[in-house]
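Batch job 17 of 40 flagged for manual review because the log was empty.
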Amino acid sequence: MTYAAINEQLLTEHKISVLLIDDQPMVGEAVRRMLEGEEDIDFHFVSDPTQAIPTAESLQPTVILQDLVMPEIDGMTMVKFMRVNSKLKDIPLIVLSTKEEATTKAEAFALGANDYLVKLPDRIELLARIRYHSKGYINLLQRNEAYKQLLESRDEMRKELAVAADYVTSLLPDPMFEGEIKADWRFIPSASLGGDSFGYHWLDDDHFAMYLLDVCDHGVGSALLSVSAMNVLRSQTLPDTDFLKPDNVLVSLNNSFQMDQQNNLYFTMWYGVYCKSERTLTYSSGGHPPALLFNGSETHQLRTPGMIVGGMPDMTYTSDSVTIAPGARFFLYSDGVYELQKVSDGKMWEFDEYTRFMAGTDGPLGTPIDQLIKHTRALQGEEMYEDDFSMVEFVFE
């Protein structure tokens, strides 16, 4: 199909959508009132800065308004995170500040902000800037839509990605069908190849390590970073690291793989250690989806608070632990196994729906994963996934 033929097709209509990130509810209410009555604008507000990025990824607004002074995270760092996130990097970002400072403006623009306003701005000016930036972004979305099929036809790139996917797969551990811990997995790389990798091995006679990481963005670069991180875990070559302590492992990974030294790439991570003699699983995570443990009649979502790995130096991570019952089933996975759009209504499959589905799976080792693959392919109406599908199942005897 030629560009002219694509350009003649009806392009998607996009409504203006505003996401305000500010820890002060009164600011959120003030902006809401400014935009109230504007039928062409949808307004969304998030006051928890730790939820800003996942909320923005879910909403996909046409413009983001972001405060510079927030608890728990520096506003400039948030701008940096937005600009290296593949889902958010092109969305117009208007920084809100209480001061008119040239140096602050310069830093914000250098990190990728599109505009700068002293809050609270005049209503007419705010509306004008929102519509101006949204119009440019909507034009970009429509241009990308027109080029989509042409970009997908680049055979040479697909060949390179296929080779990289084979390389990642060749480094994954063998399934374990015998012993006190059994493990099986499925890895289905996306067409653009995400940055998933995982592993598991005995640290000593009593401790078993298991981990999965997901690098931001897609392509060969993300895959290579994922493999590098996996290799240092497998070979236990991180300096000054106690691999029996998951929080210590994440601290070392964070310090060793800072994004400014990895082509602005970072990753989410889940790392756990099972103690056979005590039947306890100790774990730590950084920005990663919760692992699922079906422990007898109880269902546990295992996750600890923690930022993405590589985002900022000297981050603090914590560990938690849970007792494992005989016969417990445990699933470790990336967000690509459940973040998909349903063909039936165009809505995203919710995490709670995914959790309920997994609770209803059964059968021999590996069968629940196959049941999930069959179900999600039917939900999205196609075989290929937008992101890597990575899931490991463990059964504890």
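Reviewer: the log was empty due to a logging misconfiguration, but the result itself is present. DSSP finds eleven helices and 15 strands in the chain. Unflagging and moving on to job 18.
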